[in-house]
Structures are given as structure tokens and as C-alpha cells.
């Protein structure tokens, strides 16, 4: 199995520890991981702003970097969904289609491909999980509460394997945090209010950490927590799953 690690630009620039934790976790699970050095932005910011047609060079570069991988894994549901829905390369259509079919969000890869049932990690803390919209509604990583259907969550399935971790669900488990990519720039007041509501919901459970599979959502919540002077911290799912026993 040849797995290429796709690290989104904002993780590379601001939260490199998440990329490192993802790499270490996959290697602990026996995966042979490569990191294409010429990878850059997948083009999601342009698509969020209505300019997906201008991300052609990003698409071509992505195909050049990841065409040979059996699987592509990323600790970012939103970027994975963007690649699945928007990646095109007129000169390398077959390669682009292969990538769209073989790119996975981290928890999705661990549960569906590796079928991990014993993560062998320890994190003795009270934790709230934030369900990101892209992961839930786009990648179907978890069920939606408005549907009359069986309940499931691939990230929570992994978190429940972590020794000492107490998972405390919020009252409204699949409510948006308000980040929404460029939405938090164009609709700042609404975005902040939505984030505050999310923080308040988790704080009612007296959690020590809020975790999730999208650093973008966690970054938004982290900013609100810091401005409130809260002791609650944010941490990516990969960092918890990579914690030592």
C-alpha cells in the first residue's frame, strides 16, 4: 500500500504538529507513507469564493504530485471533499479521476480501509467532539440528526478506543461552528456568533478539549476560546489518536 500524505496549506503554515501526528500515526499502523514535496493549496479558497474556474493550476499540480499513489490521506475533511468534487485536469483525466476516488479523510481511511479496532492511544481527559459540516454532509463521516436513520460517527468510533478519554457530546452535535471558509470573512458577525454558540454548548459539559477532524473549524473555535480567556483547548483528532499509551 502506497499512501501519499496530503497536508493542506493552513496546516502546513499554522499547525504543522497536526501533519506530523498524522504521519506518525499512519506509520505506527504499518502504513508506508510518502510526502510529495511540491504539493501546494488544493484550490478550495478560490472555490469557496466562487472562482473554482481559476484553480486549474492547483488541479494540475495536485495531479502531478499524487497521481501515482494508491491512496491519498489528509487530516482535513473540507480539503478532501474539495478534491473529490472539484479536481479536474483536461490533460490527465484518468489520473484525476483516480485521485478523486482514492483520496480519504484520516478517520475515513482508518475505519473503512485499515479497519482499525484498537488504536492503542491514551488521552485521559474530558473531550468534546466537533462534527464538521464538510465531513458529515459531504463525506458522510457521521450520521445527521435530522434524518431517521442509524446513528454513527467514524471519528467517535476511533475516539472511543482511546484509553482514559471521556467523550462528552454537545447538546446539538451537528451544528455548524460558523467558520465556513471565506464565510467567516464576509459574514464575520454571524460567524462569530455561531462559534460562540458551539463553544458554549461544549463548555456546559466542562470539557478540557474540543477535538475534530478539520483544523479550520478548530482554528475558528480556538480564536473564540482565547478571546474569552477560556481554559478549554482545541486539539486535532490525529494528535489524540497519536498520543502515547
From TrEMBL:
- Domain Cysteine-rich: where? 3-83, 127-221
The scientific name of the source species is: Terrimonas rubra
Superkingdom of the source species: Bacteria
Pfam families, A to Z: CCG (PF02754)
What is the protein name stated in its UniProt record?
A: (Fe-S)-binding protein
Amino acid at each position: 500500500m502506497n499512501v501519499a500524505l496530503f497536508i493542506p496549506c493552513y496546516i502546513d503554515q499554522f499547525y504543522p504538529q497536526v501533519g506530523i501526528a498524522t504521519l506518525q500515526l499512519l506509520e505506527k499502523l504499518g502504513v508506508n507513507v510518502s510526502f510529495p514535496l511540491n504539493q501546494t493549496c488544493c484550490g478550495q479558497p478560490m472555490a469557496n469564493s466562487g472562482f473554482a474556474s481559476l484553480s486549474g493550476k492547483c488541479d494540475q499540480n495536485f495531479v502531478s504530485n499524487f497521481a501515482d499513489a494508491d491512496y491519498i490521506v489528509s487530516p482535513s475533511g473540507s480539503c478532501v471533499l474539495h478534491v473529490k468534487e472539484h479536481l479536474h485536469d483536461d490533460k490527465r483525466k484518468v489520473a484525476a479521476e483516480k485521485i478523486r476516488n482514492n483520496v480519504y479523510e484520516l478517520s475515513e481511511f482508518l475505519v473503512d480501509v485499515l479497519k482499525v479496532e484498537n488504536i492503542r492511544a491514551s488521552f485521559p481527559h474530558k473531550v468534546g467532539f466537533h462534527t464538521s459540516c464538510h465531513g458529515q454532509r459531504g463525506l458522510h463521516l457521521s450520521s445527521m440528526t435530522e434524518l431517521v436513520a442509524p446513528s454513527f460517527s467514524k471519528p467517535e468510533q476511533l475516539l472511543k478506543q482511546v484509553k482514559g478519554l471521556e467523550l462528552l457530546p454537545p447538546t446539538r452535535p451537528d451544528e455548524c461552528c460558523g467558520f465556513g471558509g471565506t464565510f467567516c470573512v464576509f459574514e464575520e458577525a454571524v460567524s462569530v456568533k455561531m462559534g460562540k454558540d458551539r463553544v458554549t454548548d461544549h463548555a456546559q459539559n466542562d470539557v478540557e478539549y474540543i477535538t475534530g477532524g478539520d483544523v479550520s473549524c478548530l482554528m475558528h473555535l480556538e480564536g473564540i476560546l482565547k478571546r474569552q480567556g477560556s481554559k478549554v483547548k482545541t486539539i486535532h483528532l490525529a494528535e489524540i489518536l497519536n498520543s502515547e499509551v
